[in-house]
Specification:
The structure holds two protein chains of two kinds.
Chain A: H1 15-19, H2 21-26, H3 28-37, H4 40-54, H5 66-72, H6 76-81, H7 100-104, H8 108-112, H9 127-134, H10 150-153, H11 158-161, H12 179-184, H13 209-212, H14 230-234, H15 278-281
Helix pairs in contact in A: 4-5
Chain B: H1 2-18, H2 33-38, E1 42-60, H3 62-65, E2 74-86, E3 89-96, E4 104-111, E5 115-129, E6 133-134, E7 137-140, E8 143-145, H4 148-155, E9 169-170, E10 173-187, E11 192-210, E12 220-240, E13 243-256, E14 260-264, E15 279-283, E16 288-301, E17 305-318, E18 343-359, E19 362-375, E20 386-388, E21 392-394, E22 405-419, E23 422-435, E24 440-454, E25 460-476, H5 478-482, E26 498-509, E27 515-527, E28 534-552, E29 555-573, H6 578-581, E30 587-609, E31 612-631, E32 646-660, E33 665-679, E34 692-693, E35 707-708, E36 717-729
Parallel strand pairs in B: 8-14
Antiparallel strand pairs in B: 1-2, 1-36, 2-3, 3-4, 4-5, 5-10, 6-9, 7-8, 10-11, 11-12, 12-13, 13-16, 14-15, 16-17, 17-18, 18-19, 19-22, 20-21, 22-23, 23-24, 24-25, 25-26, 26-27, 27-28, 28-29, 29-30, 30-31, 31-32, 32-33, 33-36, 34-35
Classes of the chains: A mainly alpha, B mainly beta.
Chain lengths: ~325, ~725
């Protein structure tokens, strides 16, 4: 699911802490005592001894285990246990591997000299380097298309949006309280659109950006999550307009709903990109009513202008299955 | 000047390259009981319960205030949670706004490392109108009748529709989606997963729908919505550090329980005559299916290179029975070319992506995407003629035309990391499209772009991109325009020659620990150089600025202001005859300008007052849209009377105060204010003064009130909602 392993600084880890949480709790007082009275190196050595007794597996060279990290980096154990990264029973998690050091690298040298030797610190890496760490694991499922995606190519890293240790969202470990805030920190042009009279139920909490988009990359265009075209994505919910139809409307079939609709919001009825009849007149200018000026003199008397304008009659505008439906006057 | 900009840019980049965010070496201890429980695997049951009372008062358009939600007054339960975590199992059940139209339930279950499942029940209401009224009665699903006496009196010419407005029945127009979904993922082993997603969406209610008997006899119906959409997605995926492979099948069926709608002509009781039927009939949205078989593969290569491929083969079908051309008994039946739609699309999509970072400072991306939507539907011939809106026989009806499209897109980018946190990217794209039955047989678009992105920096986030796109058509087919009587120099804007330039810049500056600034700018320019008619240009300008002040963990103030402008120009030619169509003096233009101003502000005060959390927020959004008609010098057209501006304004404010009675029990009060104001020349109550309205043809005087609408309109509202709540957490 969400990105992962981008573990900020001391991080990720504490992996094994999940598995050993009760043990850690029981041994907390002595640990703190050690930390308070001995050098960090001594404390780490002591914790490493404890870990060795608890876990028969031999750590790899240079690794010291998550409990040792937690000796100094308080609070990180709880943060990681609360996430999927901390699930020790899942063989794919950092917790089931080298704990913190799965993402931050071996910590023995750092523990011996915390000031001079630093583990992999994600706040000091380039976006690409951060991403390279995360995609070590997050390279499948919804993340399979990350490499080469729009966000990846714009120097967005996993930790641009996600916080492994201090997430503020209820899900997906985002750095903001919800998706909308996260996405709009960059996509500022969408902010005002969501407050327009015609809008998707985003501000009501029934949809969020990822209802339609996969920010981690997609096989569709525009990072759309479902389908293989804009139309197929929209038809995931608006399936009645999916077709195929007996009579198609050029510009819709095989094209894009966004030719006429702004899915992020519009003050025009049905979220149209322009008010009717002007939108239709952008393409239709043949004789009689498509080419007529509908001005204020006829505002209250012409059904070409008032109410739902053109689609008051051309109601089957998305396509028709009626044998007489070529002009979309019959659904 | 140029050197100053260069020096400033250099300083910014140096600054960007040296300053990085610092993460704390320790994190604060958790205090929320639920958060604490979620960070443990002790098997302790945890949860929260938010119960309270809500009082809501709405003056004005309640439907728009409640458009996708249910904030009616009463007792409510919200944010109900119960969960339990162990090393082996995780379980969480949640419920929101229980018992109301927008209620939602979710169950998450996880056997760690083996199985994860999410079950969701969600209801999404859409309250369309409380003002709607109609003279129709739905006697069976999709059958709308008007009292015979009304039809008879109108047919007799003694009365008009306006005389019966008082007899119309008011009703709430709404739809509701009922969505049930299950997502299940089995982990067979460290490398292999099986995913299964099942979603069923039923939608019920009614929506306004046009049902014309001709342009002088327009009717609007509350057509029933009673549909079911069922989706199944399955995939088997294998993956490890070096590659992945996924095979999947997606299927979806859409079924409409109401296949057609039949409705009385309010102007004619009977018998049917050619030109004026006593009733009409049309099909509603046809049932259809869509299936895809798809495969995805990826492999990691040397030089931090990854090659990803995706291929999908799909089919969309719709084969519902076709209705006869008309229900009008005065028109001789016209034979159908075939009894069912036999509509079918075949799709083939392929996408290949190569991403590489051979050295630390340089990365490349290349992507090729091919999408083919091939319409296989046999041409529907109408050699025996057709019938226009159940009214008149048309001997020269043409056959159906289908719009297959093939698209090939190639993107290539190269990014240079000039300092560790900043990269500059240059890119090129070529989009080639191949159309059937469009004015262009082919279009080709070239895109050049350059961007700079600074991220992962303590003091600065900077993103800027400039993009230049040029689209040109090939093999113009004038016949497509001529066949339908269109102006010869009309160019449909979705395929027309177009020059597009886009520039966006966003900067977040965090000069100190407590203060942050953000600013953004977006400028877009579209021109359609070869379009003699239709859309000529479209411009957009979007600017925003804001700040954040966080003096300590107790206070957080954010505010932002934005200004946007949208402008388009389109050209038409008033033409009722063939001679008019070639007379440029009859040209006229619509110059649209939309201006938007918006303001957002929020203040969080977290325990500055003992045990008290206060959250204040407000946002204001105002837009003003003008449509200005213009004529050419020497125009024979009457000077138009300009339309009034369309104005929308939304103002919302929220106050939420929570007091911690104990560690587990919280008391809260909240107040929401929501005010919407609108003026719309087409959908406002002044224009739509009733459900019976006049209908005129071009240049003709008003003769009667021949339109029978539903009264769906845009009008303001002011709403107040107050909440008292008790939250218990354990």
């Amino acid at each position: 699911m969400n990105i992962a392993a981008a573990l900020l600084f001391s991080g990720a880890l504490v992996a094994t802490v999940a598995r050993t949480a009760p043990v850690a709790a029981a041994s907390a007082p002595p640990t703190k005592a050690i930390a308070a009275t001995a050098s960090p190196a001594d404390a780490v050595a002591a914790r490493a001894d404890e870990a060795a007794q608890a876990a028969p597996a031999t750590p790899q060279k240079g690794y010291i285990g998550a409990e040792a990290c937690a000796t100094c980096h308080e609070g990180y154990a709880a943060s990681i246990t609360a996430s999927k990264h901390g699930q020790t029973k899942d063989a794919r998690t950092p917790a089931a591997a080298q704990g913190c050091e799965t993402c931050h690298g071996p910590g023995e040298a750092h523990a011996s000299d915390p000031e001079k030797v630093k583990p992999k610190q994600f706040d000091k890496l380039s976006a690409k380097a951060i991403t390279d760490t995360c995609v070590t694991c997050h390279n499948r499922g919804p993340h399979a298309q990350w490499k080469g995606s729009q966000h990846e190519s714009r120097n967005v890293s996993c930790v641009s949006c996600h916080s492994i240790h201090q997430p503020k969202s209820a899900k997906a470990q985002l750095k903001t309280a919800n998706q909308q805030l996260q996405c709009m920190s960059c996509h500022r042009d969408k902010v005002a659109k969501l407050d327009r009279s015609g809008h998707m139920p985003v501000r009501e909490g029934k949809m969020e950006c990822t209802s339609c988009h996969n920010p981690h990359g997609s096989t569709n265009v525009r990072l759309l999550k479902a389908g293989n075209s804009i139309n197929e994505s929209c038809a995931t919910c608006h399936t009645e307009k999916r077709g195929p139809f007996l009579f198609e409307h050029a510009g819709i079939s095989g094209e894009s709903c966004a030719t006429c609709h702004d899915p992020h919001g519009s003050n025009n009825d049905r979220m149209l990109v322009a008010k009717l009849p002007f939108l239709c007149q952008r393409c239709h200018n043949h004789t009689r009513h498509p080419s007529t000026i509908y001005d204020n003199k006829v505002a209250g008397t012409s059904n070409r202008l008032y109410s739902r304008s053109c689609v008051s009659c051309h109601s089957a505008i998305h396509g028709s299955n009626h044998p007489a439906g070529s002009t979309f006057l019959r659904q | 000047m140029r050197s100053n900009i260069g020096i400033a840019a250099a300083l910014v980049l140096v600054f960007a390259g040296t300053a990085r965010a610092q993460d704390p070496s320790t994190l604060p201890a958790l205090t929320d009981p639920v958060e604490i429980a979620r960070s443990e695997t002790t098997g302790k049951v945890y949860g929260s319960l938010d119960i309270g009372g809500r009082v809501t008062q709405v003056d004005g358009d309640e439907a728009r205030f409640q458009r996708y939600r249910d904030l009616r007054g009463g007792v409510y339960g919200n944010n109900m949670l119960i969960g339990r975590r162990t090393e082996e199992w995780n379980f969480e059940a949640q419920a929101w706004n229980t018992g109301y139209r927008d209620q939602r339930y979710q169950l998450d279950l996880q056997r760690v490392g083996r199985l994860s499942a999410t079950f969701l029940w969600d209801q999404i209401p859409m309250f369309i109108s409380r003002d709607t009224r109609t003279l129709y009665t739905q006697t069976a699903p999709g059958v709308f009748r008007i009292e015979d006496s009304i039809q008879q009196e109108i047919q007799g010419g003694t009365r008009t529709l306006r005389n019966y407005e008082d007899q119309a029945t008011r009703f709430d127009m709404r739809t509701t989606r009922y969505l049930g979904q299950a997502d299940v993922k089995f982990n067979f082993d460290r490398s292999t997963d099986l995913t299964l997603k099942v979603r069923n969406t039923t939608r019920e209610g009614a929506i306004p729908f046009g049902a014309t008997f001709g342009f002088n006899n327009a009717v609007e119906l509350p057509v029933p919505v009673d549909t079911r959409h069922t989706e199944l997605q399955t995939a088997l995926e294998w993956g490890n550090e070096t590659g992945m492979l996924r095979l999947g099948w997606d299927g979806s069926t859409f079924h409409n329980n109401v296949e057609s709608v039949t409705w009385d002509n309010p102007l004619r009781y009977g018998p049917d005559i050619s030109g004026t039927p006593s009733q009409g009939r049309m099909s509603l949205w046809p049932g259809n299916t869509l299936t895809y078989l798809h495969g995805t593969g990826a492999v990691s290569l040397a030089g931090r290179t990854r090659l990803t491929g995706y291929v999908a083969l799909g089919q969309g079908r719709s084969n519902e029975d076709l209705l006869p051309f008309t229900i009008n008994t005065a028109i001789a039946p016209v034979a159908l070319a075939r009894p069912t739609a036999e509509a079918e699309n075949q799709m083939m999509i392929a996408q290949f992506t190569l991403g590489a970072r051979p050295v630390r400072q340089l990365s490349f991306n290349a992507k090729y995407r091919y999408a083919d939507v091939d319409v296989q539907t046999p041409v529907f011939e109408r050699k025996g003629g057709s019938v226009a809106y159940d009214s008149s026989f048309n001997a020269s009806a043409g056959p159906s035309e289908y719009h297959s499209v093939k698209r090939a897109t190639f993107d290539a980018d190269a990014a240079f990391q000039i300092v560790p946190t900043t990269s500059v990217k240059v890119g090129f794209s070529h989009l080639a499209s191949d159309y059937t039955y469009r004015i262009w047989e082919k279009t080709a678009e070239n895109v050049f772009r350059v961007s700079v992105d600074t991220t992962s920096n303590q003091y600065l986030m900077l993103r800027g991109v400039y993009e230049n796109r040029t689209r040109e058509g090939e093999h113009f087919d004038a016949d497509v325009l001529v066949e339908v009587g269109e102006l010869a120099d009309m160019r449909h804007y979705d395929v027309a020659d177009r020059n597009r330039q886009r520039f966006t810049l966003i900067a977040n500056v965090m000069p100190g620990g407590i203060f942050g600034l953000t600013a953004s700018a977006g400028v877009g320019r579209d021109e359609y150089p070869s379009s003699g008619a239709g859309l000529q240009s479209y411009d957009s300008d979007q600017y925003s600025a804001g700040f954040t002040v966080t003096p300590d963990d107790r206070y957080n103030l954010t505010a932002s202001y934005g200004w946007e402008r949208y402008q388009s120009l389109q050209r038409s030619r008033a033409a009722t005859t063939a001679a008019d169509q070639v007379n440029p003096l009859r040209n006229w233009t619509t110059d649209y300008e939309g201006r938007v101003n918006f303001l957002e502000a929020a203040l969080d005060i977290d325990r500055a007052i003992e045990r008290t959390v206060i959250r204040l927020s407000a946002d204001w959004n105002r837009s003003n849209d003008t449509y200005l008609y213009g004529l050419v010098t020497g125009s024979p057209l009457a000077v138009p009377e300009q339309l009034p501006a369309v104005k929308n304004q939304l103002l919302r404010g929220e106050v939420d105060v929570t007091y911690e009675l104990t560690r587990n029990l919280r008391f809260g009060v909240a107040y929401w204010y929501d005010d919407y104001d609108v003026q719309d020349f087409a959908l406002g109550p002044t224009t739509l003064s009733g459900i019976a309205l006049p209908v005129i043809q071009e240049g003709q005087p008003v003769v009667a009130t021949n339109a029978l609408l539903l009264g769906y309109l845009y009008r303001p509202y002011t709403a107040h909602a107050g909440f008292l709540k008790l939250t218990y957490l354990w």
